[in-house]
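queue> pop job 88
queue> type: inverse folding (structure -> sequence)
queue> payload:
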């Protein structure tokens, strides 16, 4: 498995991570990377629930207009 390469800018850094993760998924068993994805997704859901924002507040933070 290759090491994650640092990028020269944010876009390159992201693409390097995509390449790294794709290689990881190809070379590791489903159970190993699936468990890691579950931890990440569950923590994002937990964080979103803890924020207790209304849809309007969320869109205002993002700088978007709420049409409801």
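queue> result:
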């Amino acid at each position: 498995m290759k090491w994650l390469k640092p990028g020269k800018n944010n876009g390159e850094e992201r693409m390097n991570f995509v390449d790294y993760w794709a290689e990881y998924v190809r070379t590791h068993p489903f159970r190993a990377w699936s468990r890691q994805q579950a931890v990440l997704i569950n923590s994002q859901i937990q964080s979103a629930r803890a924020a207790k924002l209304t849809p309007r507040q969320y869109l205002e933070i993002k700088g978007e207009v709420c049409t409801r």
